[in-house]
Amino acid sequence: MHINKNFIRNFAIIAHIDHGKSTLADALMRICGALEQRHEKEQFLDNMDIERERGITIKAQTVRLKFKAQDGNVYQLNLMDTPGHVDFSYEVSRSLAACEGSLLVVDASQGVEAQTLANVYKAIENNHTLIPVLNKMDLPSADPENIKIQIQHLIGIPAEDAIEVSAKKGIGIEAVLQAIVDRLPCPQGDETACLKALLVDSWYDAYLGVILLVRIIDGIITPKKKIRMMAANAVYTVEQIGVFTPYPNPVEHLACGEVGYIIANVKAVGDCHIGDTITEENRPAEEALPGFKSCTPVVFCSLFPVEAGDFDKLKESLAKLHLNDASFSYEMDSSNALGFGFRLGLLGLLHLEVVQERLEREFDLDLIITAPSVIYKIQLQNGTWIDLHNPSDMPSPNEIKSMMEPWIKATLFVPDAYVGSILTLLVERRGIRESLEYVTPTRALMVYRMPLNEVAFDFYDTLKSLSRGHASFDYEMNGYEEGELVLLSIALNGDPIHALSFVVPKVRAYDKGRAICEKLKEILPRQLFPIAIQATVGGKILARETVSALRKNVTAKCYGGDITRKRKLLEKQKEGKKRMRQFGNIEIPQKAFIEVLKIGK
């Protein structure tokens, strides 16, 4: 049965973390009868264990709902639930490209946060119609009138007709559904034109191969049709098409304006490019859709399997994970201490943690991760510029003319009580103030410029603990600036450990080197020979610690007798220790890498 596209609405839910997106999605599904009582669980669309444990959305999910509006017609609503955290902004941008409008969810007690602003700007870029929704109205601290003023002042959209709801209690949900039907535009497109479908997402299924999630822009798709992926120039035959209601539900066709999945026996993981255009083989589209802006990784680190034999498994797992999360990049890497592995480019530290956890859980891998770093630009003495992704590749100091590091523009919303401690944190992290204004009598909006390197490690966690979770933070890249930077290397018994190399500001090199040496002295297991731990910058030793040797009592079997017998055994042991030290290969426990990363600035 064809549905007239005037009765279709595609919408996303955007909000800051913890403002109730997933709970609102549950409430919408419940009202539309998509969730049966026996299957119900909170945050239904967060289907990864990590999402449920951390209470965050990582993957954008999609659901088709049916809603009978006040005009008596049944509307098809395609919902895209999006993540809120800054590290998953690429997921958000993809969901928004597949919709015509958005529900802007704002916590009625906390108000507009940094990520709310970032996601709203993305929605406006995609020409979305926005419907403001004030959630958590059941809380005694809810202050809808002030929040509406904030939305108008900070975002610049009229908020007097914002819908007041409590997703948890199920209050006001019908009004949201009716507003989606009344206020959002229906999809544009021509069903008779040649097929154009936007590839929004994909994931790997062990039985079905690659599953594609698409939004049909023009035309219609049915099973047994031959389709062509325009970027990869690969042709496949459609085996099955369907929609999520929220369970996979096969259908006979997907027409323009609809969102659904395609199974087409795609075995080559490399053929799927998120943002690609899918068209019909016999009647191809003349030009591809514009696709998505490719995302630029900002944090880099290396991944190595604990067991060298797992390298091929890691390679295969990364390819499958990349299908589902196109926002990270990876390439081969090797290290003298850790063997073969991969260099990953990611959107942030939470993103790194999630990728690591997904590899370990979904693909059963044991991994070692090196210190995250950012991209530096180096001008050599001969005038050429190079990009430095990995600190261990840094040229020697006499070859370097100047070094540039990436800077960001950070937007922070901070409650009045925590402004002082957060200003101190920003100064410590080399932040430069651009503006500080009070948007309400109790909340300050700070705009700061600071080096990305200062944010890449533990800035987010420190900010949250200083403000007891109340401050919010979002950032965008803001060019490169010259900095006095040096390479801090850690050597064990004279051998540099590349996985523990850091680029640091010159003024901090001594403190950081000292802290790492002391930490390693605690962690490294003692051997039968002493271990010298040194922190060096350009051949100059800044700090040193020694792990003393274990001593085996070789004279235990001598009781009484001549002292020369004991001396002979001790001399023999001494010779052996010398030789051991020469060939002694130090095993570095994985804990050491993780502990060193945790050392605060």
UniProtKB/TrEMBL annotation:
Keywords: Cell membrane, Elongation factor, GTP-binding, Hydrolase, Membrane, Nucleotide-binding, Protein biosynthesis. GTP binds at residues 18-23, 135-138. It catalyses: GTP + H2O = GDP + phosphate + H(+). Pfam families: EFG_C, EFG_III, GTP_EFTU, GTP_EFTU_D2, LepA_C. Its EC number is 3.6.5.n1. One of its GO terms (molecular function) is GTP binding. Residues 6-188 form the Tr-type G domain. It is found in: Cell membrane. It is a peripheral membrane protein. GO terms for biological process: positive regulation of translation. Its main location: membrane. GO terms for cellular component: plasma membrane. InterPro entries: EF-4, EFG_II, EFG_III/V, EFG_V-like, EFTu-like_2, G_TR_CS, LepA_C_sf, LepA_CTD. Belongs to the GTP-binding elongation factor family. LepA subfamily. Required for accurate and efficient protein synthesis under certain stress conditions. May act as a fidelity factor of the translation reaction, by catalyzing a one-codon backward translocation of tRNAs on improperly translocated ribosomes. Back-translocation proceeds from a post-translocation (POST) complex to a pre-translocation (PRE) complex, thus giving elongation factor G a second chance to translocate the tRNAs correctly. Binds to ribosomes in a GTP-dependent manner. This is Elongation factor 4. It comes from Holospora elegans E1. The gene is lepA.
